[in-house]
Amino acid sequence: MGTNQHIEFDQSWHRAAELLDRKFPLHEGSHRSAADYVVHFDHLLIIRSDGSCTGLAQPSQFVEAGGDWESPQSIRLEDDGFQVEIEPDRGAIGAVGAAPREHRLQMITTFDI
Question: Are 86 and 64 in contact (CB under 8 A)?
Answer without folding.
Answer: no
